[in-house]
Amino acid sequence: MRIWFVITANFFLLQLATLESLSVYWNTDTPLLADHSPEDFSKEFYAMISKPDKEQTDNRYLLKPVSGTGKVIVNKQYGGSTPKFGVNMLFEELGFILDEEQYQDAILTVELFHTYLKRQQYRALRPALPKTPKTHPREFFKFAQRAVLDHIHEKNYKWSWDHFRTRRDDRKQYISCHVDNALGRATASQKEALKKLEQKLSFEDIRFYRSMAKSKLKRERASINQQAKSQETTAKKAGNWLSSWWGGSSGKPNIDGDEDPEAAEVTEQQRQELFEAIDWNEDKAALAMAVDMPKD
């Protein structure tokens, strides 16, 4: 892709971009290049690149070579209804192709990755190379037996009280440390515990616990803001009282009924009373939002 700067104005910048022979291919019967030297390897790959004057007919394209021009407008002053970038692309052709062999290879690749991920958890139990099932059948039979038993034991352990207790403790500790760390008041021990928990827990557990901590973090921040506003209001009232004492204010009451606008805000206790009245639970709502469908 080549880009030229065309016009520079006070409020926008015009650019002209040219795209030449962008393509995606999947060759199902290509020879392996692993035994080639780095120079031959590079030459083979460069020879497979299509050009406007020379299209490679041997490649089996998923996306046929695309050439075209694009006009890009970069707005220096953007926001609201004005975008930062405006793009107008003109292509000669957009052609997508997927034949039967490419589809089969794609499904096979996904299946191989799935098999690799399933075997990865038992790799530590597998007999070391160069042992094979043919040369050491007894060891591989024990390996298969142990893999099945470990899977059953792990499955049973996840339904034990010890596992429930451990997950409960990890959840409580992670939520507490995460909230304190987000508020900037975490101690060194809490930061270290949070680091160890993030190494121990799975990605799904971390995302789930953070979704549960979000509502608690929101309440903590609201409480901190409310306390800061209360202290500020108290300081203002004390200052007004001193100024009226020394300045000889008449102490006329507020007959207009205008109260401090901060007093009209809903406190945390009032919010909880409202939630109890409408039978609403923020934690349960967070749990419901965090539940994912099974991957399978």
Topology:
Blueprint lengths: L1 E7 L3 E14 L12 H10 L13 E15 L9 E7 L8 H21 L16 H21 L3 H22 L5 H13 L2 H45 L20 H10 L4 H9 L6
Antiparallel strand pairs: 1-2, 2-3, 3-4
Helix pairs in contact: 4-5, 4-6, 6-8
Main sheet overview? 4 strands, antiparallel
Write down the secondary-structure element order.
Answer: EEHEEHHHHHHH
Name the shape in a single word. Answer: flat
Order of neighbouring strands in the sheet with most strands: 1-2-3-4
Specify the helix fraction band: 40-55%
Question: Domains counted in the coordinates: how many?
Answer: 3
Helix/strand structural class: alpha+beta
> What is the typical, i.e. mean, pLDDT?
81
Helix count equals: 8
**For this entry, what is the oligomeric state of its chains?**
single chain
Distance separating the two termini: 41 Å
Q: Which residue ranges are poorly predicted, with pLDDT under 50 across at least 5 consecutive positions? A: 249-264, 292-296
Strand coverage percent: 5-15%
What Rg, in angstroms, do the CA atoms define? 33 Å
Q: Please tally the β strands and state the result.
A: 4
Structure description:
- This protein has 296 residues and is α+β, with helices and mostly antiparallel strands.
- The chain has three domains: 2-99, no CATH class; 103-151, no CATH class; 163-231 and 264-290.
- 51% of the residues lie in helices and 15% in strands.
- It contains eight helices and four strands; from the N terminus they run ββαββααααααα.
- The chain has a four-stranded antiparallel beta sheet, with no helix packed on it.
- The radius of gyration is 33 Å and the shape is flat.
- The relative contact order is 0.06.
